[in-house]
Write a structure and sequence with these properties.
Blueprint: E1 3-4, E2 6-12, E3 16-21, E4 30-35, E5 42-45, E6 68-72, H1 90-94, E7 104-105, E8 109-113, E9 120-127, E10 130-133, E11 137-141, E12 147-155, E13 160-165, E14 171-173, E15 178-185, E16 191-198, E17 201-206, E18 212-215, E19 221-231, E20 236-238, E21 242-247, E22 255-260, E23 266-268, E24 273-280, E25 286-293, E26 296-301, E27 306-310, E28 316-326, E29 331-333, E30 337-342, E31 350-355, E32 360-363, E33 368-375, E34 381-388, E35 391-396, E36 401-405, E37 411-421, E38 426-428, E39 432-437
Parallel strand pairs: 2-6, 2-12, 14-21, 23-30, 32-39
Antiparallel strand pairs: 1-7, 3-4, 5-6, 8-11, 9-10, 9-12, 13-15, 15-18, 16-17, 16-19, 19-20, 19-21, 22-24, 24-27, 25-26, 25-28, 28-29, 28-30, 31-33, 33-36, 34-35, 34-37, 37-38, 37-39
Length: 439
């Protein structure tokens, strides 16, 4: 059977293409591999051409030939030729082209396979200018005539990435969840993976829409984010770097109040009082509580319950306050609590006649010693006055308190003692009755 010529034209814009025919039931096998580094060039084997689109053959050699044409971006740039026995392949071999079968008989089954290089996608096969198939792998029967098959490839632009959040120079608070998202588009390919980088580290890798993730618990400071997207053509693109800032959450001031003593409470000069405060901090801890009297620091407590003891209270009206400081240095001052410190009320002294005893008898003209017991709980005894029937007999200012009453007159008499303390308070003893009789 007469061998027909197969003009195979590969119209594309990438670097590597494979076209081969598998052996099926003893059929011929054809392998054509092409690696071309130059862009916008056209390789033509055993033909002269007008352009890459029509694969025009202007002359044919005497030997059987497998004619094909390889085009980049549809523009011819140079041509080479080779005969069947491979004796004249110097330039072609240098370009890594090998051929085993250069022509095929009509009726043979031909298998075509095209694998795009990165950045390109296979579009379609055409037979003599007519659409044949859009499948990368395609099998057809060689007709009983010369044919021209063209493989078409489209250039694919890398993915287009737009970071939608965070916005440029945006700010977030610590512990705030940050939504990081991107819009990723491709003109002809499909997006296979989208990676999110924060501060140079991959924080998320997504294969499906939506391209967004939540970044939890960011640290304070400035952060950079960028996105890297991959498509089915093997290309990838990297977005611009977007900068945002994470700031510390504003520190809340602590709260403090004096719980004891109460407003307007009274005390006595010289006493002691315990001042207690309630203090708390919503976003941290209370470091210390300072206690003040009339603006002067009395003391500090750094552990709960917060209190100090103020002793030897001075006389007067005083204002108490408490100042709380938290673990971040924020402070708060309590409302003022007013107290009054007064002199202690003077207690009256106590006094009683210890001698003579009640109803005791004496003789006219005798003498009798009158003695008294006197004391003062909150001071001292200044003096003790002794009375007979309401008339002052005498005074003693030193312990033991006593006087001598001589030349006793006849009759019944009532004895009393009056004690006076150092603050002028007085007390009178119970009366003691005695009798003075004739000898």
């Amino acid at each position: 059977m007469y061998a027909k010529k197969l003009l195979l034209i590969l119209l594309f814009s990438f670097n590597i293409l494979e076209v081969h025919s598998d052996i099926i039931s003893g059929l011929d096998r054809m392998v054509i591999e092409q690696t071309v580094r130059e862009i916008n060039k056209c390789l033509i084997i055993n033909e002269k051409y007008k352009n890459c689109e029509d694969g025009y053959i202007s002359e044919k050699p005497n030997k059987p030939w497998m004619n094909f044409m390889l085009c980049l971006n549809g523009k011819p740039g140079f041509d080479e030729w080779a005969d069947l026995d491979g004796s004249n392949f110097p330039e072609v071999t240098k370009k890594n082209i090998s051929t085993e079968i250069l022509e095929s008989e009509g009726g043979k089954r031909i298998f075509l396979s095209a694998e795009p290089e990165i950045g390109y996608v296979f579009k379609q096969w055409t037979l003599n200018g007519e659409f044949l198939s859009s499948s990368i792998n395609y099998e057809f029967v060689m007709p009983f005539e010369d044919v021209s098959i063209i493989g078409h490839f489209d250039k694919i632009e890398p993915p287009i990435i737009t970071i939608t959040t965070p916005s440029l120079n945006s700010s977030y608070l610590v512990e705030e969840k940050i939504n990081i998202s991107a819009d990723v588009q491709s003109n002809k390919a499909y997006i296979t993976k989208v990676e999110f980088f924060v501060n140079g580290n991959v924080e998320a890798s997504l294969n499906d829409l939506p391209y967004t993730f939540i970044w939890d618990n960011p640290s304070p400071g400035e952060h950079d984010v960028f996105v890297k997207a991959y498509d089915t053509s093997g290309q990838f693109a990297i977005s611009e770097i977007r900068t945002f800032t994470v700031i510390d959450k504003p520190n809340s001031a602590p709260k403090v109040s004096i719980s004891s003593p109460g407003e307007g409470e009274g005390f006595t000069v010289g006493e002691s009082v315990t001042i207690t405060a309630d203090a708390s901090d919503a976003d941290g801890e209370v470091a210390k509580v300072d206690f003040y009297r009339d603006g002067t620091l009395l003391g500090t407590d750094s552990a709960y319950p917060y209190s100090i003891t103020w002793g030897d209270l001075p006389k007067g009206n005083h204002v108490l306050t408490a100042k709380a400081t938290d673990d971040k240095g924020a402070t708060a001052v309590s409302s003022a609590v007013s107290i009054t410190v007064s002199d202690k009320e003077n207690s009256a002294p106590k006094v009683s006649i210890s001698s003579p005893g009640e109803g005791e008898g004496f003789t006219v003209g005798e003498s009798v010693t009158i003695a008294a017991d006197a004391s003062d709980a909150d001071g001292e005894i200044a003096k003790v006055d002794f009375y007979r029937d309401g008339t002052l007999l005498g005074t003693d200012i030193a312990y033991p308190y006593s006087i001598t009453w001589g030349d006793l007159p006849k009759g019944s008499h009532v004895l009393t003692a009056k004690a006076t303390d150092d603050k002028g308070a007085t007390a009178v003893s119970s009366a003691v009755s005695i009798t003075v009789s004739e000898k």
